Every structure is written in structure tokens, then in C-alpha cells.
Amino acid sequence: MAEGVRRRRKLKPVEEAIQFSLEQKDKNGLEGRFISHLKGRGVFSCTDFEKGDFLLEYRGDLISKEECERRQRIYHDALKVFMFEFRYNGKLLCVDAARDDGSLGRLVNDDHINPNSRMKTIRVDGKPHLCLFATRSICPGEEITYDYGDSEWPWRCTTLSVG
């Protein structure tokens, strides 16, 4: 290596998540695409990701349980799916991503059978941030998904027809 030239150290996944959370930006290598009228939009990889890599943050308003309940009473059903409730330091909190701010995290779809990422809570400047990390290698063109958890989401219901 030439004298005076340094290679930039690759950030660890959590360090990278903190950096993008502070900048309130999405990283390169991901894009939002329309899938169908039933599913709506989703997030797709444009590059290779390795297991453990930081993918993106689920950004929105960090609100209390009480404010979450208030907003759910006034929101249309189509907006309620953007309310991400979670427990942090013994308190029930919510990230409300109903307002489309152009960030990709709010577009990541549910897959409770074979997700390729997992939501983790990280601490940035004393506040919780919800970030997705790859649970396996992800190839270009692959949709980014995670398991929304133990809820009775309408798209998970299957109907058997009797012939």
C-alpha cells in the first residue's frame, strides 16, 4: 500500500446502523418497487448482502403506547399497518411510519415462513431505533422481508374451498 494512503475500515453492522440512523438516510443497494395492488410496494436488493449485514431502519415517529392507541383510533385501516409496537427498557413504545417520508423501511413486507432479515432494536443517542439485519445471504433482485411476529395479519389467513 502506498505511503499516506489508507483503506477505509469497514464498519461493523451495528456501527453502520447507527451511522444511517443518525443521518436519517437509507443505504445504497436497496430500492422500493410496486409489486401488486394486493401486496402494494416492497423493498428489493440491488446488490449482494451477507448474513449479519445492516439493511435499513424502520423510521417514523417514536411515540408512547398511549399515543399509539390514540392514533390507531383515528387512522384508516390502511395506515394502521405502519404502526410498529415494541418493548424497550420495560416500556411499550411504537414507531409510527404512517407518513410516507420516502424511507424504505416502512415498505418491507412480512414473511413469517422464510424471511431474510430480522428486526433488532439498537440504541442511538439514548433512543431506540428499529433496524433490519440480514439473517442470510441476499442476492440482487430478492425482496427484503421479515417476520412481523405473532399477529393475525389478514394476508396470513388461508381459505380452504370445499369442492
Give a description of the structure.
Helices cover 15% and strands 34% of the residues. The protein folds into 2 domains: 90 residues, Beta Complex (Beta-clip-like), CATH 2.170.270.10; 41 residues, no CATH class. It has 163 residues and is α+β, with helices and mostly antiparallel strands. The relative contact order is 0.21. The longest helix has 11 residues. It is built from 3 helices and 10 strands, in the order αββββααββββββ. Strand 5 and strand 6 form a beta hairpin. The protein has a 4-stranded mixed sheet, with no helix packed on it. Strands 3-9-8 form a 3-stranded antiparallel sheet, with helices on one face. The protein has a 3-stranded antiparallel sheet with strand order 4-6-5, covered by helices on one side. Pfam families: SET. One of its GO terms (molecular function) is histone H4K20 methyltransferase activity. This is Histone-lysine N-methyltransferase set-1-like.
Summary?
With 163 residues, the protein is α+β, with helices and mostly antiparallel strands.
How would you sum up the major sheet?
4 strands, mixed
Task: Provide the succession of SSEs.
Answer: HEEEEHHEEEEEE
CATH superfamily of the largest domain: SET domain
Helix content: 10-25%
Strand content is 25-35%
What would you say the CATH architecture of the largest domain is? Beta Complex
- In total, how many beta strands? 10
- CATH domain class name of the largest domain: Mainly Beta
Structural Rg: 18 Å
GO molecular function, one term: histone H4K20 methyltransferase activity
Organism: Carassius auratus
Pfam families: SET (PF00856)
Domain SET: 28-149
